[in-house]
## 1
Amino acid sequence: MLSVALVIGFTAVIAAMAMNVFRLVRGPYPEDRVLALDTLYINAIALILLLSIEFASRLYFEAALLIAMMGFVGTIALAKYLDRGDLMH
């Protein structure tokens, strides 16, 4: 039962990542690209957590936590850049 759920989960997350990459490349506005990148981080975290369940390893949880922190900081920096035009002012 768990293996079927993991296959469905992998399929859904990879499909969501493909749609995010499409929006990242094609997005008409920079704000759309930032949101697509932010959602891509979240999908990468979900994929890593699914791999952690698949391989029964706790090491992947730490990697997911690091990606979450870097994704949050990156999204804030990009939003600030789009709002003001610079990061340090």
## 2
Amino acid sequence: MPELPEVETTKNGLLPLINNQRVTRAIRHRANLRWEIPKALKTILAGQVVNGIDRRGKYLLIRFDVGTLIIHLGMSGSIKVVNSSEVLRKHDHFELIFDNNKSMRLNDPRRFGAVLFSKDGSHPLLNSLGVEPLEEEFDETYLYNKSRNKVQNIKTFIMNSKVVVGVGNIYACESLFASGIDPARQAGSVSKKRYALLTQHIKNILKKAIKAGGTTLQDFSQVDGTPGYFTQTLSVYGREGKNCSTCGGKISRLIQNQRSTFYCKQCQT
């Protein structure tokens, strides 16, 4: 699933290509993804100019004078900008065609993504989100206070988008390993000192992933079609049975909330 670094990478790739460009057509090649793509986008966005692109959590926000196009990449989505004459690929479900003959296309094989619209830029899906992990507000005090009396495991806790956004499965595993914290430990039992270490590692790992263009495991690719290269630096994720780079022991896997968690039993306590 594309996580914060992949969405940030997509945003950064789109900015020089579609910002300040005028939409000539908005086309939904498939009516429904996770929710129905608004049919009115064809009328709403025709003739509108992109005047900014932001990210909130895992949501991509494309700004227009008339409102904000909200895109979520779901589990398998990616966005590319190509010549508008290029033949559609399978699973290209939504596109914006611009007056420079370029086309922005959302490709989503599993169709868990979303294309929504808000006139004022707000949306219930955005309003419930927690802090951004790369902002100053996200520190050990914030995370420690949020975790008090929490009996859920620490990995589930830091993946809760109402607490902090964008720390998905890959980066949660990697951050907990770097911090030496057992992913099964109760969030409320983690000390403030260890939260200081964890918040710093979350920030550092997310920044490194963004710099590397995100992580490509199966479907994700950057706007220009190239893969994300952070996969090459993963310490535990997807490495079950392989040697730990720190202690030489074997990387283990367990299931938490229907997600695979990769960790080192010796290094993480």
